[in-house]
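Just curious. Invent one:
>
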Amino acid sequence: QVQLVESGGGSVQAGGSLRLSCAAFGYIYSSYCMGWFRQAPGKEREGVAAIDTGDGRTYYADSVKGRFTISQDYAKNTLYLHMNSLKPEDTAMYYCALGPGGGSCLMQEGYNYWGQGTQVTVSS
């Protein structure tokens, strides 16, 4: 079993920055996808950014490219999402996820462990 614990959400004005953290506890695969997804009210959950630890490849949604950066501290089993130039449309509940992957690490079907989520609110 794997437990994921997110932190770092909050409220910020447009143009501001936040850093989300996700600590993973328990058995971790030798090669896996670990990523961030978000869900805004009334919308479907979407992939934001992810890492494939097998080859180190990173994935970003077009809407966050150039503004968000995903990184991982393997020693601490912690995933980060550095969010800059935040926009009101980035407002959502952000979820950390981990799984064996399969194809793009932005595909939700590749994940079987999910955190409880952390709220990000960006005001204009």
In short: The radius of gyration is 13 Å. The mean pLDDT is 94. Residues 43 and 83 are 20 Å apart (CA to CA). The first strand starts at residue 2 and ends at 7.
